[in-house]
Amino acid sequence: MSTPLSPRDYFEVVLPTILRWKGPAAAALGVNLCFCVTGKGGGTWTIRLRPPAAGVVPGSEWKADLTIKITAAEMLNILAGTFDARRAIGEGNIELKGDVTILRRVGFLFQSGGSQTEVRAPNGATPAKS
Could you give the domains of the chain? Predict the structure, then answer.
């Protein structure tokens, strides 16, 4: 059984790798997103999807076009693929502030295309398959 991916691992390891994979296409979106994950294991990260290169920084260093305040439990649901947006909003577990139309353009942020092992490989190397 694998260990669930934490929000910190996602924003500090997995997402930067996804953004490198997406390259200029991610930067071309021209927006900044701020995730404020509340509760145990939470934190704040800003995702810059602007030229010259997309990236993620801890905190709210850049002005966000959309801020997503979400509980750590709901963030874990997103990472596990079991997120129910209507329920989360109805229960007050997620709040959106800013241009919500951005959400349609950034769905790729939660589709890694690789396993945790591949994403965590040093220097982007793909581990040997057995």
Answer: 7-110 (3.30.1050.10)
